[in-house]
Amino acid sequence: MFRKSARLLSVTLRGRGLSSDVQRLAYNAHPPTKLQEQLLQHSSPVPIVVTGAMDNWQARNWTRSDLMQHGDTIVPVERSHNGGDYRDLHNASSTRGFEADLEVPLSAVLQSMQDTRQQPVQSLLYAAQVDLISLIPALEEGIEQPPLRAIHDRLYKRNSWLGPAGTITPLHCDPYFNLFCQIWGSKYIRIYDRKHAQQLHPFSNPFLRNTSQVHVEKVDSKMFPNFDQVPYLECHLMPGEMLFMPKKFWHFVQALEPSCRLGHCTRPKAIAIASDCRNVHIHRHVWQLLQRLWQSSHHATPQMGLLSTFWKGQGCARTGSESKGHIHFDGPCGASDGF
């Protein structure tokens, strides 16, 4: 099994700058209703790692062989070259590579994870923000309902991430609540409060407004001299642990091992409706149409006003290597995280 034999990456991120550990909460010590109340904390929820909530998940015993039984299933993936991510799609001068909207058999992803575990590679294949449970209904038996299924009456969405060690999700924020469930493998996660958003140097590009220009794993101190002075939370999310991420909190994710993760999120209807287009294989054309409408006039109709609001600050980041039609629905529920 990957998590038993994975070789940890050398990580130099942890403990640098003004860091604090993410608060931890034991699931067995809190009834689900009390847990939800504590996580949401009314108007000011904070990130919390929940331990013990996945103790009975059969999915934690999934092996490579188990998933290989469904190896013919076609899954959408992204490929990163030399550390590239979805930001490189918008940077013509970038020397790093990134490909999105690829489709391969699940077996290819699993084989890539095995190859990467055995020796370092320059190209990483990653199944990010994929509803793997819907693609393979048999996997449903291994999953239990998380303690936060419905928040503020918003729509519920489930995604999964499956990828090798080394995948990275750029620093970004999402307009919805996330509950990350780490099935196996571990991840380093750094979190910044939404109140520090401008100090994180978000892009002015309307398609990347929820993504930072800073490469957290290798900060350019000349270009961003004060970045290391911004306080943050951090954690190593281990197998069987959940991380509750409030909406609009900025987060960076690095997979330390081949990883399998499930994400649950709630988000506004406008975003969910748009993402549904991906399920009928017309997402690329729909996004291109919406982009043209946006570029022409976002005041033309009430619908375009809604899209304007979404793109101007509610946009979702594409995790690590996520970008469908230049807009990504993260992890991380996105950025190149992993499941």
Give a written overview of the molecule.
There is one protein chain. This protein starts with a helix and ends in a 25-residue tail after the last helix. The model is unreliable at 1-12, 270-283 and 297-339 (pLDDT under 50). The chain has 8 helices and 14 strands. The chain has one domain (2-314): Jelly Rolls (Sandwich), CATH 2.60.120.650. The strands form 2 sheets. It has a 9-stranded mixed beta sheet with strand order 2-3-12-9-14-7-6-4-5. A 5-stranded mixed beta sheet has the order 1-11-10-13-8, with no helix packed on it. The protein has 339 residues and is an alpha+beta fold.
Looking at this protein, list some descriptive labels.
five-stranded mixed beta sheet; 339 residues; 8 helices; nine-stranded mixed beta sheet; alpha+beta
From the alpha-carbon coordinates, what is the Rg to the nearest angstrom? 19 Å
Would you identify the CATH H-level superfamily?
Answer: Cupin
Number of DSSP-assigned strands? 14
The class by helix and strand makeup works out as alpha+beta
Uncertain stretches: 1-12, 270-283, 297-339
Average pLDDT, to the nearest integer? Answer: 75
- Enumerate how many helices there are, as a single number: 8
Strand content: 25-35%
CATH class, named Mainly Beta
Q: Strand order of the main beta sheet, please? A: 2-3-12-9-14-7-6-4-5
Task: Return the string of H and E elements.
Answer: HEEHEHEEHEHEEEEEEEEHHH
Oligomer status: single chain
CATH topology assignment? Jelly Rolls
Give the fraction of residues assigned to helices: 10-25%
